[in-house]
Design a protein that fits this description.
The structure is a homodimer. The first copy, chain A, has two domains: 147 residues, Lyase, Ornithine Decarboxylase, Chain A, domain 1 (Beta Barrel); 210 residues, Alanine racemase (TIM Barrel), CATH 3.20.20.10. Chain A contains 13 helices and 17 strands. In chain A, strands 1, 11, 12, 13, 14, 15, 16 and 17 form an eight-stranded mixed sheet that branches. The longest helix of chain A has 21 residues. Chains A and B meet through helix 2, helix 4, helix 6, strand 11 and helix 13 of A and helix 2, helix 4, helix 6, strand 11 and helix 13 of B.
Chain lengths: 379, 379
Amino acid sequence: MAINKNIEDIKYKYKNYLLQSGNLFLINKKNIIYNSSIISKKSKNAIISPVVKANGYGMGVLTITNILIELGYKKIFLANIAEGIEVRKKFKNIEIYILNVGKPFNTNILKKYKLIPVINSLEEIKIWIENSQKKDSCILHIDTAMNRLGISYSEVLDKQNKILFHKLNIKYVMTHLACAEEKKNILNLKQLKEFKKCAKILSKITKCSIKSSICNSSGLWLGSKYILDLVRPGAAFWGINPQNNKQNPLKEAVSLYAQITQIKKISKNSSIGYGQTVKMKKDTIIATISLGYSHGFSRLLSNKGSVYIGNKKINVLGRISMDLTVIDISKFTYGEIRTGDLVEIFGPNRSLEKFAKENKTIPYEMLCNMGKNIPKMIV
Amino acid sequence: MAINKNIEDIKYKYKNYLLQSGNLFLINKKNIIYNSSIISKKSKNAIISPVVKANGYGMGVLTITNILIELGYKKIFLANIAEGIEVRKKFKNIEIYILNVGKPFNTNILKKYKLIPVINSLEEIKIWIENSQKKDSCILHIDTAMNRLGISYSEVLDKQNKILFHKLNIKYVMTHLACAEEKKNILNLKQLKEFKKCAKILSKITKCSIKSSICNSSGLWLGSKYILDLVRPGAAFWGINPQNNKQNPLKEAVSLYAQITQIKKISKNSSIGYGQTVKMKKDTIIATISLGYSHGFSRLLSNKGSVYIGNKKINVLGRISMDLTVIDISKFTYGEIRTGDLVEIFGPNRSLEKFAKENKTIPYEMLCNMGKNIPKMIV
């Protein structure tokens, strides 16, 4: 039986991928383009520099960078040198900013791969000055609330450091919002004000009008005064909801499917899976799908999680295995569902946002964790 | 300050890897060899065919297959066709068994890459017979308790199926234990008995003495009558404890480190990270490490998890970010710990087993989930 036309199309169109690993991510390029247009509107005249770190939020940094370049983006943020080298080898003409250069702070490797560092500490400034030319630009990161990476407000104020800042060619000064998802949180404005003061001081010291950046994805929804010169959206391209407890203004761009690899009728009192953690109360039709905890389908969902067939919610039975999960398809008559049919993990029937909540986490973590060992198709 | 000599050695020896991503898996080959020798003893005269699925339990299927070949193993089990193709392209002379061929059951691709299927259903037998020669061998999987993959006992007994089994060239018949970690669980013996009956029936039908396999890693500790002709250890090579609530007879072969990328003194009442979920009760020295939830350091450990510096347990502060985590290093005096120093996630101070428990899961899932985006060094 065709579950629905759309899923039958997927099954047919991507059969060569599905037969290899039995599961598939669909990356909806139209939705990325839609999200990109919303980001673009929100960003006014600011430069948009997408964040593609953590292997493109799990979806493959090269694939995603390629899409973003097609959409006209020319500057991207990456997490570390390893990602920088990988992307630079493939893409020669984009600007790459490295958020966390790592230790030892290695100027040679940055230069070799034309990577622009985000400088996070006085210690890093000193090394950078010693080993670079005045023309070599950097981004300076001010820590205004995260207490994670960046130079502190008091370090910016400290007159002893003037000589250091003066020697830098600062392309942008940036900070990172700690509570941008909460529009009403007063911290946002506090961070903005402190950051602007820092930018002003640094402009004075360097005698340049330094450009600045505070917005991550969620920051774009805080109002136009947060936009500044450059914005750094990441999650918004994937359609992850930028605001807590509000309807998502974006379109989720990823869905995940797994194939049914076996169907069985089992009798009352049968157990399922490792440790026999569940016993059937009646005769049951079960299906085994090609997805397990090694794909990020968390073992904590054992006997609790669900998938979708058509618009029907189908429960997980027993412990989730490394690459297999058993589900209860008794809602269908025997023969109605066949091996090779697809189940949805998230997609049209359950948003990534909802699935993340069921996993007691956020869509960011779900994406990063589920991107492994699963083929990805751009549709 | 040197935390201890060992960790200083690691820091120095692998500095080129550490500077790229700020984190590092060490795969201890000596311990794999030790575990291999224990597996070998336990396996008596049986053939040992390692299971290297889920990208070699997250550690890289090619790297691990290479080590296993060096140790003399010539037959391996993989999860699916995708893994089969990847390994076959690199290694021409080993036997590769595919546990879950996927749908549609594709005989051509199996032959093209010389992959031997584990056949899990009558449906698959029919396709295999139609599209293969009598000489093409397969492994037949009998489901004796898992209710996951495999042919049922009743299907083996069913006389109608004789003609199907008769046409197969069965290299091995296998089943999978559901509770092998629990030595006293009566299910183990029940599965063994039912499985042996199946093997006997199939030997009679095919007029061959069919070889058989029931043991996963834990099965090897159930006693010699479980050994049979072939054993399929996977986790045991990594030193994952094969028995519940017993001392581990194996040596864990993996440890994980992350680099301190920044150190700060912050004042009383400062908050840390996204959502300001923690407020300092006193002036605190914090460090930011290059590891986050995108590396599988679960966000559920926010404000709860820990790492080790030397033999000191160091707490996580605030929410774990995508690729960064903040820790409280006030146990040390300022200056005692420096950027570039390494913290241990699991290793000599905390076993993978213990770390998995802190994550409410099993070492298998931890390994699979933490293998992403982190360089691995064989030491």
